[in-house]
Structures are given as structure tokens and as C-alpha cells.
Design brief:
heterodimer; A: about 110 residues; seven-stranded mixed sheet; globular; B: about 100 residues; mainly beta; about 0% helix
Chain lengths: ~110, ~100
């Protein structure tokens, strides 16, 4: 039973480019959460999605960031026109039910040059 | 929103020692989780514990929901216990973590 998968594990982008981060939840999980962890800091909630729906995006920056979780395929976190301040580790987690145990993926380390 | 505070922020132990990590939260919650982030950045779920007590090997956790706190106990600590311990409450609010260093 594969765990939460994220790819790529490492991503390097130049300022102004787009970054696409993918998250495949555990089998049977329909709830996905994205978090950002800046260097030497804790995890900050970004967005919570169910299949085809954004449930809570209160932690998402208002511009340049978007997320989706289509009916088929992985959840995508998209960052447009990246800036150096976007450099961070982005983790996704999934759960079977909305208020139950979250299982984390290995994260994507984004470096913006 | 709900506030989550963890203490202590940093903890250094000698191998074999016991420790208690605390998580206070500002409002009633119906779920709480403890995670361990190892030095390589991997996040491991330790306990889902909205109330009561659970044990898993050398680790145990207790949540007293009515008093808005949870405790994580680590007994006979090992160097592999090093890392950052986070508690989190729904909706996905994490504390700032306790950084544990276990020295051989």
C-alpha cells in the first residue's frame, strides 16, 4: 500500500518561471492538504481539497498560487511567476476522512534562483 | 483562529533519558495529532489523539481536551528520536514544534 507520493522531490526554477508540484494521496484517501515549510520554520497550512473541490484555501497567498484536485490524477499545487521567497519545502498530506489522521508525503523542495 | 503553543522550543537530552513535550491549544478541538520530523525532513505521524491516552512502544501521548493540552512522552530516548516534534489541530494548525536533540 503505497504512501503519499510527491513529485518532483526537488525543483529548481528561475524567478518568473512556473512551478508545478504534484501529490498523489494514499489509496482510498480523498482529502488532500498542502503545507509550506520555510527554512528553519514550522509547517503552515495552505489549502485543503477534496476531489474536484477546494474546501479551505485560507492559507493560500492571494496571488500566483492555485491548487486543484481533479477527479482523475494527482493534486497539483501551481505557483506562477515564482520569486525567491517561494523557496521552501512543500508537503502534502492525505486523509481518509476530513478530521482524521493525516499522512504526509516526502515533500518537494523548491529552490528559486 | 485557534492558537497552538508548544513547549519547550528546544530540548537536549542524553541518550536513555525521558522527556515530556507539551502542546497547549486555545480552543476546544475534536482532533489533535503529533508528528515527528526527522533530520532528513520526513514527517511521520505518531499519534492521532483527540482525547485520552495512547501508547506506541517508547512513546505515549495524553490529551486532556477539557483543559486544552496534550502531552507527548518519550521514554529511554535514543539518538534516532532527534528531530522536531509538532502537534497539530484541525483545521491543520501546527505548533512551532519542539526541537529535540538526543546525544549519545
Amino acid at each position: 500500500n503505497a504512501g503519499v507520493m510527491q513529485n518532483p522531490r526537488h525543483l529548481v526554477r528561475r524567478r518568473g518561471q512556473e512551478a508545478r508540484l504534484r501529490c498523489s494521496p494514499m489509496k482510498g484517501h480523498s482529502h488532500v492538504y498542502w503545507y509550506r515549510q520555510l527554512p528553519e520554520e514550522g509547517l503552515k497550512f495552505m489549502v485543503y481539497l477534496q476531489k474536484e473541490n477546494i474546501i479551505d484555501e485560507s492559507g493560500m497567498p492571494k496571488e500566483r498560487f492555485s491548487a486543484e484536485f481533479p477527479k482523475e490524477g494527482p493534486s497539483i499545487l501551481r505557483i506562477q511567476q515564482v520569486v525567491r521567497g517561494d523557496s521552501a519545502a512543500y508537503f502534502c498530506a492525505s486523509s481518509q476522512l476530513p478530521e482524521e489522521t493525516q499522512y504526509f508525503g516526502p515533500g518537494t523542495r523548491l529552490l528559486v534562483l | 483562529g485557534i492558537q497552538v503553543e508548544q513547549s519547550p522550543p528546544d530540548l537536549i537530552l542524553q541518550e536513555g533519558a525521558n522527556s515530556t513535550l507539551r502542546c497547549n491549544f486555545s480552543d476546544s478541538v475534536n482532533n489533535l495529532q503529533w508528528f515527528h520530523q526527522n533530520p532528513w525532513g520526513q514527517l511521520i505521524n505518531l499519534f492521532y489523539i483527540p482525547s485520552g491516552t495512547k501508547q506506541n512502544g517508547r512513546l505515549s501521548a495524553t490529551t486532556v481536551a477539557t483543559e486544552r493540552y496534550s502531552l507527548l512522552y518519550i521514554s529511554s530516548s535514543q539518538t534516532t528520536d532527534s528531530g522536531v516534534y509538532f502537534c497539530a489541530v484541525f483545521k491543520s494548525t501546527f505548533g512551532d514544534g519542539t526541537t529535540l536533540t538526543v546525544k549519545p
